[in-house]
Amino acid sequence: MKHNTRSIGSILESVLRDINADDPVAKKRIINEWQKIMDPRISKVCHPVNFTENNVLILEAISESWKNELINLKPIIMKTLKSKFNQLKIKDIKIL
Q1: DSSP label at 70?
Q2: CA 5 – CA 11 distance, rounded (Å)
Q3: Which is it for strands 56-61 and 46-51: parallel, antiparallel or unpaired?
Q4: The domain spanning residue 42 has which CATH number?
Q5: What is the b/e burial string over 69-85, where b = at least 16 CB atoms within 10 angstroms of the residue's CB?
Q6: Cβ atoms of 70 and 61 closer than 8 Å
Q7: Is 31 exposed, middle or buried (0-12, 13-18, 19+ CB in 10 A)?
Q8: What's the pTM value of the predicted model, to 2 decimals?
Q9: Where are the alpha helices (DSSP H) in 1-96?
Q10: pLDDT tens, position by position, 53-90
Q11: Residue 3 in contact with residue 65, Cβ under 8 Å?
Q12: 53: domain range?
């Protein structure tokens, strides 16, 4: 008999995804692991603050000029997040 072994983390992630309880987990990972998740050129100039109840990600830019630039980079940020957190439905990004 052959056994398919999986890590407890992958099993937990699968179960959470199946019951739609992964949003808080994914949101926490985005906030805590921003430097690992995002392209370094973006992660150096902003950081996540929080998510609103409506699934809007709040980012804080390091300056007003970077805020303006990040507004133009929103599609790239969204694409990166969707590729890594497919199950999380981020509606928008607000940049402070």
Answers
A1: H
A2: 10
A3: antiparallel
A4: 3.30.300
A5: ebeebeeebeeebeeeb
A6: yes
A7: middle
A8: 0.75
A9: 8-18, 23-32, 34-37, 40-43, 64-84
A10: 899 999 999 999 999 999 999 999 999 999 998 888 89
A11: no
A12: 8-95
Three-class DSSP category at 47: strand
Asked, for residue 62, whether it belongs to a domain, the answer is: yes
34-60 pLDDT per residue, tens? 999 999 999 999 999 999 989 999 999
Place of tokens 């996540």: 48
Q: How many CB atoms lie within 10 A of CB 58?
A: 15
pLDDT of residue 24: 87
In a domain, 1, yes or no: no
Q: How many CB atoms lie under 10 A from the CB of residue 50?
A: 11
Assess contact for 85 and 17: CB atoms under 8 A. Answer: no
Please, what is the Cα angle at 89 between 85 and 93, to 5 degrees?
95
| pLDDT recorded at residue 87 | 82
For the chain, the residue count is 96
* Cβ atoms 27, 55 nearer than 8 A: no
